[in-house]
Records
---
Amino acid sequence: MKSKNYSKKISKIFKKRGFVFLEPDVILDSNYIIQRSGENFKKLMFTFEDDSGKNMCLRPDLTVASCVKYLEENTKGTSKIYYSGQAYRKSNNSKDSIVNNQLGLEIIGSKKKSSDDREIIDTILKAINKIKIKKIIINIGDVSLFRQLIDSLKIPERWKLRLVRHFWRPKYFEDLLNRLETNSDIDPIAVDFDKKRFSEMKKLNQNEEIAGRKISEILSRFDKKISDPRSFAEGKKTAKIIREFLEISCPIGKMDKSLKNFFKKYNIKKNIIKSKLPIKSLSKSNYKIIFSTNFGRDIEYYTGMVFEISASKNKQKIARGGRYDDLLKNLGSKKNIPAVGAAIYLDNLSKITQ
Amino acid sequence: MKDILTIGLPSKGRLRESALNFFKKNNLELASKGGDRDYFASLNKLPKAKVIYLHAREIIERLGDGTLDIGISGLDLLSESAINLKKRIEVTRKLDFGKANLVVAIPNDWIDVQTIADLEEVSFYFRDKKNLRLRVATKYPNLTNKFFTAKGVTQYKIILSLGATETYPFTGSSEIITDITSTGSTLKANNLRVLKDGTILESQACVLISKQSKKKASESDLPKSFF
């Protein structure tokens, strides 16, 4: 079957469930996206300058494009939308295609987070069922668990921020853990030398700026840094906890127990898992569902539940999605607007049903 | 032209002098026909070769498009150049001159910043508290991007500089810089300090060869020390 036909069939299901068709713009103001993601993401995008000198790009992703549209249209309240179209990304791997056909849906601006998460997953599963792909594996995670774990640990505040920020870069994250373990973070000799300069600078006008930073800002960060509690044993233990946490992986039915055991072992407050996990209700379904704490670390905008569905047969990816409660704010919204969504990899479907 | 081996040499400064020295050591006299304004020279022992004096960056470009067969230039400039160019050029020998490092430098008085990890935190502070991205002035945007990305620094913006990069942090054009330095004295004189783990690349002069000219060069009478 051609992807056009799949698209028709699946769209029908989306519509039936109350999702409304939205056509996001193909060309976006790239400052929106770069401001959020920095130069790193820029590498993936096709950017250019328009005649007025504004930086534009081809949409790298339809989730971002639909959120921009949602904000532009000044939509109030809950919006259930679906879209179908192409996203454009550069890649270093010549096997990857530059043009990706995406068919997806989003629930934006609704506070019923648990039931929304469930609705997104259920709708996607219904669609997969409709196109007669029977044997699938669902990988699921919740990236907010990691954030809560870090919050509950006794480590310097700047280390917490650092670990949370770099959760998305597994390789660099491992570097960080190594550094945390060995405490190779502060050099005592340099600190002594700079203490002298510190007292000299104390006497200067604190509002004076040095390359964009006020003297007061520099001194207060210096002060905080050298007074951070640092003990070798603590760092080592923390790194161990984090590593072990990220190794948790089990069938969804055993998720609760695995997490509880882990928190008990390290004496961590158990309320972390109390609030959690709309995904728990999935344990009653008949699908093969694997829960991993490590899952969902490759796209920075996720904030909660993350899932991916692939075919058992050949491991081709069918769909993926998740909750991204901060994205709209990062794109310029003044209010917090919760959102959750998922997309189907149309290009892969024919490889599976053949 | 086809059987003439075209050699590119840096046209200015210390790199030019050291390159000429290297030729001398190999008993290759450059019979330059004119003064400093003469762009061409011939070699006494290699009648089938000609030398062109070019800007060091230009040497890389011309090796890439095949107008030069072989040349001497900096490793920093080769590493910085576009992937399509790099693919067509090979380093045949690293030379013991032109040594310099590409480094990340910050204002001396940012005493709270010693490492890239500190810099990364400050860059987030810029984003979260000032809604700005930390600006990095450089003549080497590609190498800088690659280095920062690998070190987990993502919240910054490149400001392209064509020269006197050291002044940028103090004229309000950028907060920090990356630049090439051999002794570090220019940085010091401008109140800048290199981060402890801020070496992006250790560079030196190299003999470079255009891949499509490999056969031609090996069949020429160039001494072994070029390969």
Note: The mean pLDDT of chain B is 90.
---
Amino acid sequence: MRKWYVHDSDGREIYLTEERWEHIQIRHSELKNHLDDVLNTVRRGKRRQQPQDPQAFVYRLRCDTLRPPFNGILVVVVFHFEAHANGNVIPNNFIVSAWGIVMRQ
Amino acid sequence: MNLEKKELKLDTGKTAWYEYDRDGDVLEIIFQPDEATGAVELTESIILRFDWETNEPLSLSIISFSRLLQANPYGEVHFQLLTDEWPDEVREKIWKMLQTTPLSEFLKLSGYSPAHTHQIIPMATIRQPYLMPQAA
């Protein structure tokens, strides 16, 4: 199964699995065929930590290529760590889901 | 993806269902699987997708779901509604949807009056019907 990797504006590596991308397109069809725009939201979007969950972040970015009235994308990313057998702990940052939204002009 | 799915019987007699993504801690309550023609952030953690023409809510997504339901010493937690971020042309639609079922079965509206101001800040708290998933 494919994975797409991006870096946010502070250089954090984040991935999106094909399985999650398929689910996003089914549940939030306004984003169908907008994979690049979703990834770009992580690359260039404004990042906000979720107040109740320090490991979850929202990225938001205006996007004018969605079908109207949608004009923005919101992506949720969780920042986890994975422990390997050799004792190393490595980041496991992945996109959970994404939505098209109508943002104030 | 570790998705938990369950049907929900609404007060109206209609059926909805939820999908709880345990790995990502996102709960999505789906009222109708139709294509959305609008969506807004109700709060920092709740997204509403709806039909722009009929004003019908289609789904409610709750980010960091298990964290939002964690017990705190003061009782229910109320989340500020992001009314300033809703476009003017959908504001009335959203209020109507929030005040009627099915959204009113999942969200309860309230207002917060901070000390020394005349301002009332609109808030919402999550109702947790017995059929919702247990937090991880």
Note: Chain A has two helices and six strands.
